[in-house]
Amino acid sequence: MHTPGPWIAIESHDKREDGYIREATATEDGRHVAVAQVARAARPFSEYRANARLIAAAPDLLEVVKICLKAEQERREKLLPNAPATTYCEARIAAIEAAIAKAGGR
Hints:
By secondary structure, the protein is of the alpha+beta class. It has helices spanning 45-78, 84-103, and strands spanning 7-15, 20-27, 32-39. It has one domain (7-103). Helices cover 51% and strands 24% of the residues. Strands 1-2-3 form a three-stranded antiparallel sheet. The model has no long low-confidence stretch (mean pLDDT 79).
């Protein structure tokens, strides 16, 4: 079970004494969920800021994916067995289920 959202990206620009810069993702009440910590010269700082925003969007994205799964499952019930549309629908359902499983650590 993950920390409930919403999460926000914090642009901390916290330069530590050892030369690392941190970008954090936290809950709205300030509890840290993840920290993107990098050596200053490793990659552009903007990349880590983008990573923090992506991590912050994770709970929202997971909920949207679950809505899409339900919609695809409902659509599948209306399709004819073995029709091409059914095959495509099954492929989408499998991909969505795999993404949800990955988010759940399975």
